[in-house]
Amino acid sequence: MVTIDLKELTKRFGEVVACDHIDLHINDGELFTLLGPSGCGKTTILRCVAGFYTPEEGQVFFGETDMTRVPPNNRNTGMVFQNYAIWPHMKVFDNVAFGLKIRKIPKDEIRKKVLDILELVRLGGMENRTPFQLSGGQQQRVALARALVIEPRVLLFDEPLSNLDAKLRVEMRHEIKRIQKEFGITTIYVTHDQEEALSISDRIAVMELGHIRQVDSPKDIYEEPQNLFVADFIGSCTFLHGTITSANGKKITIETSWGQQLHGRTTRNDLTFSKGEEAFAAIRPEDFRVREPKADFNKLSSTIESLVFTGRYYQVYADVGGTHPVKAELAADSEIKVKDKRDLFISYRDVIILKAEGDPFADRIRSLLEGKAEAD
Questions:
Q1: Confidence band of 271 (pLDDT split at 50, 70, 90)
Q2: Strand residue runs (E) in 320-369
Q3: Quick one: which of 9, 158, 291, 367 has the most CB atoms within 10 Å?
């Protein structure tokens, strides 16, 4: 199909910079997700790629072709919107056929293409239904079929599953990924839902305030966060604040204000850590244990403040001596109760040490740990 390159892409709305000098390469046939909270600039980038917005600076390339000022109708992109955007007065067939009719495709060819694509999205036999006779998931499949039937070079999704219930969202994730891989279309997918992004993407760009904070595979975004924002936004993290006492390559040790030593690692090869420097340890709740590992582990003495049995695990908040309790997900067969004094174990590898200096999100984490900000 085609690669997509964004070069120094900048879009402003008055004094608000929605996306700020974005450089991005998307591979041929890749399902690439722009992930971030509301207002981070992800939909603005998508609309610049679609041609709905013209950037003040920078360029959009499809392959070697500069598309920055090419009208949307000449870009050969297919778009699936959050609200489906299917016409209520048209039957399924006519909704899907609309783009083909605009392109003046012969009627016999239109019929074959529409019926074939409806089979692909598992709506075979529903071509004569109206949108009112379809479920939310089926309406979204109509929108997907309409985008695919024109055989676009690029497929664009703008929060396509946010109006569906939880079960349908999971079902449609698998459908979108299956169909995208079958067609091999270069795809940009916009969402604020971390689980959705992690489950569907080849690569993810995590965005905040018009900037890209990290681009990586879903696994590396989750396990190798490069900064405090990504560690906090993706999944759930406990942060412990401290000072670096030793740094040896990627192996870092910090000491908290209450004297707890924590051995961990950095995910950054491009940064130097120095003794006495402020840092944060980021720990995923599922990485805590109540049984002592065989080697290379930290031990935190704790008092269990609260616990909730979820079926698969206990969700626990424990006081380890700081101003903010740690959050842990402990095995369902753990014998624990509120007010227990328990040692929590965490392997060195599962403690990510992140710099405070130069990280714009450091003040937010400090405020959270001091109780001056609420957790999202």
A1: confident
A2: 326-331, 341-347, 352-355
A3: 9
Domain 228-369 maps to which CATH number in 2.40.50.140, 3.20.20.70, 1.10.10.10, 3.40.50.720?
2.40.50.140
Q: What is the CA radius of gyration of the chain?
A: 24
> What is the per-residue pLDDT across 61-106, written as a single tens digit (0 to 9) for each?
999 999 999 999 999 999 998 887 888 899 999 999 999 998 999 9
Return d(Cα 343, Cα 351) in angstroms, integer: 16
pLDDT of 49 strictly over 80: yes
Q: Give the three-state DSSP class for 366.
A: helix
DSSP 289: B
Q: Which residue has the tokens 């560690």?
A: 231
> Rounded to whole angstroms, how far apart are CA atoms 78 and 143?
10
Confidence class of residue 376 from pLDDT cuts 50, 70 and 90?
low
Structure tokens at 251: 């192996």
pLDDT for 278 beyond 70: yes
Distance (Å, whole) CA 48 – CA 318: 46
Contact 299, 344 (CB under 8 A): yes
Lowest mean pLDDT among 40-44, 84-88, 330-334: 84-88
In the chain, where the domains are located? 4-223, 228-369
Please name every residue paired with 252 in a beta bridge, in sequence order, or none if there are none.
247, 264
CB 19 within 8 A of CB 39: no
Rounded to an integer, the average pLDDT of 223-238 is 94
Q: Does the pLDDT value for residue 41 go beyond 70?
A: yes
d(CA 205, CA 276): 32
Residue entry with tokens 């992140």: 354
